[in-house]
Amino acid sequence: MHPLLHTKDNVACKDLMIALEQCHMRGFLWKSMGMCNDAKEELSACLRAERWKTQSFNRSGVADKKDKIRQAWKDVDENT
Q: Function of this protein (predicted)?
């Protein structure tokens, strides 16, 4: 299962999304016989890479935030 495709975060995978949608538009038999599997795997790999970029960006500032919070609590504990 993949995340929502048409969001601002998935712009890099737009071509792959279009290719998968076009493959799905060919009909049920085309999808059920596995003819869209390659397009889906490529899209999943692209979405995974984009998610990894987002997660690494989000994690980059966590250590600094935690240190600030610890320092604030330390100051509170020392001043009470």
A: Required for mitochondrial cytochrome c oxidase (COX) assembly and respiration.
Q: How many CB atoms lie within 10 A of CB 7?
A: 8
CB 50, CB 9: distance < 8 Å: yes
**How far is the C-alpha of 77 from the C-alpha of 40, rounded, in Å?**
54
Q: Nearest 5 degrees, angle CA 23-CA 5-CA 48?
A: 95
What pTM value is reported for the model?
A: 0.70
Of 45, 38, 2, nearest to 22 (Cα)?
Answer: 38
Q: Which of 7, 5, 72 is nearest to 39 (CA)?
A: 5
Contact in structure between 17 and 10 (CB atoms under 8 Å):
yes
